[in-house]
Amino acid sequence: MLDALRDRLAEVADLGHAAAVLEWDQETFMPPGGAEGRGRQIATLRRIAHERFTDPAVGEWLAAARPETDLDRALVRVTRRDWDRATLLPARLVSEKAEASARAMEAWKAARETDAFALFAPHLAYVLALAREEADLVRPLVAAERGPGYAPSAADARYDALLDEYEPGASTASVAETFRQLREGLVPLVAAAAEAPAPDDSFLRVPFDADAQWAFGLDVAERLGYSLDHGRQDRSAHPFTTSFGTTDVRVTTRVDPAFFPTAFFSTVHEAGHGIYEQGFAPGLEGTPLADGASLGVHESQSRLYENLVARGGPFWTWAYPRLQARFPHLADVPRRAFVRAVNRVEPSLIRVEADELTYHLHVLLRFELERALLSGDLPVADLPGAWRDGMRDLLGVAPNTDADGCLQDVHWSLGAVGYFPTYTLGTLMSVQLWNAADRDLGGLDALLAAGEFGPLLGWLREHVHRWGRAKTADEVLRDATGSGLDAAPWLAYAEAKVKRLYDLS
Ligand code: ZN
Hints:
The protein has helices at residues 2-28, 35-54, 56-64, 70-88, 91-114, 117-146, 154-166, 172-195, 210-224, 260-278, 295-309, 313-326, 335-341, 359-375, 383-395, 421-440, 444-449, 454-463, 473-481, 488-501; strands at 231-235, 241-243, 249-253. It is mainly alpha-helical.
């Protein structure tokens, strides 16, 4: 039974990877005229993959499977989970969702361009109605998986069902409590940084040769552990990572020729995702286990490399002379001034441009608002006002337009409710993992300052990467660090960093 199951899963994985190649090309090299045909080709491959996976035979093989190894038990558990969810939703709801989000996305683009929330509002209301319908269908599965102690409020149960898609096992109540602790510690920290004299970052806002930026970023990505024998980097409007199997994992970046951090930190961020995907154990290939344990765990890897490594002083001890060699205008900028500049904390309006600290406040706002939208406590028409109030409360700044406010992110138009929290959950995990690696390896700072990135990579391979989905996010974290998700380590890290870089005490 397991052999038949494995054969079918390999076929489904091949179809998915082939579709991913077409999607990658669509975002990188495809000429504009190819869009229509390409959309059809991708839809065809995805439909065939879905049919092959939801085939009743797969359910029969799963029911009859008698797994004897840990790996096979994980394979059956994860495949069962995916199969239950894939077969649960009626075809009508699946196609209605696809059509509604395609229309909502077009309306969102038009509304954002003209700053006209009213154009988007009815689409958002409909997408939310479908999300509620989906959540109510998925709720019993989530409840069954979590056992008899699971007793959420009705509103939380709905949000749990959507959150579970991206962060399996996470609950609204515990995320809300973690975020409450985060907010309590973070708001005063951001205020303290905002009151201190802002670090000068004018030397980052001058022309940086685009090719030299590209070469520097890719060299760092490779040294950190991203293999170019099994990957490559190209340009795209929005940076992303995609996998055609562990032996071919692609990343993209974008380059701003007049602002250094854009390309460099997005390159390192995506390299972190790519390193994870390249590190799944070979035995997972061709099965649903060859994927991140959760979006949060995936983000923990990108944030660990982006923030803990590449925004840290020790890394620049090694990297800064190399950067100065490529960009001679930095010759007169001391390393400490450079490190302060790339860590500047400043409340701003746009999530994707936010610094390491204020970023979470953007996520907290979205978490609050999307729960209120889903429960109906917040009518769609009131979203723009609630957004401005929330920004004022959390960040002390508020947008003048909805384009810079509630229309800035694509997620809700796609029906992706429950996705935003994973960005912050992953970042909290990144510090927990970092602390454990630091302890196990006897100090990461000295290794990074010497440009020795192998030990950290080896530790992550052993404790995180190789498992893929064979461990749950909670198991990965507990086995690697000894504890479950916790905001305190990140807060301690952020506080120490702000005090050091802003000379506060
Ligand atoms: Zn990411």
